Amino acid sequence: MSAELKVARNKMKLLDLAEYLKNVSEACRVSGVSRQHFYDIKQAFAEGGIDALRDQSRRKPILKNRVSPEVEEAVVRMADDFPAYGQLRVANELKKHGVVVSSGGVRSIWLRHNLETFDKRLKRLEEKSAQAGIVFTEAQLIALENAKREKESDPDSIETHHPGFLISQDTMYVGCLKGVGRIYQQTVVDTYSAVAFAKIYETKVPVTSADLLNDRVLPFFEEHGVIVQRVLTDRGTEYCGKEETHAYELFLGLNEIEHTCTKTKHPQTNGICERFHQTCLNEFYKVTFRKKMYRTMQELQDDLDLFIKDYNETRTHQGVRCKGSTPMQTFLTGVGLALAKQISPPASAAENGPLNGSSEAANRAASALG
After folding, report:
1. How confident is the model at residue 134 (pLDDT cuts 50, 70, 90)?
2. Three-state SS at 355
3. Which fold has domain 157-369?
4. What are the structural domain ranges in the chain?
5. What is the DSSP string of 198-267?
């Protein structure tokens, strides 16, 4: 409820109290207001209803301080021609053409025309082009292309066509377990179905990142005959390094999985994993640490596995692809799409186990974790 609406409702209470008591003086005494104020409220309500009781701003624009119409028109035209320019650059560019206006003045004009943000200026540009069929300048095209790329990197519109097309992986710091030390969670989420995998470790290193794929993720996908094509991670040292020596990069190369990194300083690019971490924190860790004292990592891992099982198989999702189904139901529904688009099924998965050709990386992971 806004502050203005609260004020209006308090004034209505004064009118209701006077009507209930049948005594204006007593109502004013209880409320601590004058009779004149009461009658002002009553008159305003009679003329304009409850909207008239809202606090009205006493500030009036000083029109003589506004810029001339020619300057205002030049600023709006600049917003159309160069929507990516900020207010300071607009002021500097207009100064080159003899139009003097401060950066604050530019922003004031933008506010009057609802152009104060880059997105609003782009929206205005698109609407004008749709109505008039204008031809974009090079600067306008660059701004629109940049906005399109930003939109495509949004987690709600990430490109994913079937299970295994893109998996998202990230590391979450859980906390410090008494007698164990720091605890980190390695997380993988299938971006199509939202099926999640999680495992906790004492360190945050390349081997642990590869171990989750080796132990949980790839065996699950191969069990259903689905190939994992690409993985999205941030640029942390546990994911990025020299391909010849970095354990995680080696593991991805052995399994022919393409590696994509998020945009620098934009963690929202990997928003699917980030959102799952928030769910884990709120629905599992904050609850279980208040109910149980953990002595070993295995105890915590067992309870985490139960939470992940419930998350995948019982908890419904309202995402773009799940639409009220569980992640596992969405995954099984999408398996047909994945198989139809695969060139060939995983090579002899049933005969050779979950990770063909990756035993060396798996052995390194096991020895390091042991």
Report:
1. low
2. coil
3. Nucleotidyltransferase; domain 5 (3.30.420)
4. 3-53, 63-152, 157-369
5. EEEES--SHHHHHHHIIIIIHHHHHHTT----EEEE-S-TTT-S-TTT-HHHHHHHHTT-EEEEPPTT-G
Instruction: Quickly list DSSP for 87-145.
Output: HHHHHHHHHHTT----HHHHHHHHHHTT--SHHHHHHHHHHHHHHH-PPPPHHHHHHHH
User: What would the pLDDT profile of 211-260 be if each residue is shown by its tens digit?
Assistant: 888 888 899 989 888 888 888 888 888 888 887 788 888 888 888 888 88
Given its phi and psi angles, is residue 186 left (phi above 0), alpha (psi -120 to 50 degrees) or beta? beta
Could you give the C-alpha distances from 96 to 89, 99, 248, in angstroms and in order? 11, 7, 54
24 or 262, higher pLDDT: 24
- CA–CA gap between residue 68 and residue 41 (Å, rounded): 40
Strand order in the sheet with 167-177: 196-201, 181-190, 167-177, 230-233, 258-261
pTM score over 0.70? no
Phi-psi region of 259 (alpha: psi -120 to 50; beta: other; left: phi over 0): beta
